Amino acid sequence: MEEEKLYDTLVDSTETLNVSDFTENIYNYEDRLVRFAGEVKLWYMRIEKSDVNKYYGHQLLRSSGGAALNYGEAQGTLTPKDFIFKMSLVHKELRECRVNLKILDHGESSNEINVLLEEVSELMAISARMILNAQKKHGHQSKSK
Question: Would you say the pTM of this structure is higher than 0.90?
């Protein structure tokens, strides 16, 4: 009973997302990744739990958290090659987030999902730039796509 009350309080007290939620004084990439994963979690707590929303929502929760966790691992790598590999995992997880958000938003046009899509696009651009910079700095060839 207490858990239900706490859940209802959390869901009721959360407001809809705005772009400024992500951009105010957050310049640290790790902090942005953690904030993104947290906002995904709060968004998921508010949505209707249809079978489709549960399926894609759970995957979105895993991939958004995975991006932050892999970035944490990238910070502890011993070689540039390991750093590039871990950052490529961060980028992969973010790409997965973007696709999940697009699927969840298909036909809905949710402002909250649009805000999350904007943030994930910025996070992807940053991770791509970090990978390219590391490859240039350490003489690694970038892969053609």
Answer: no
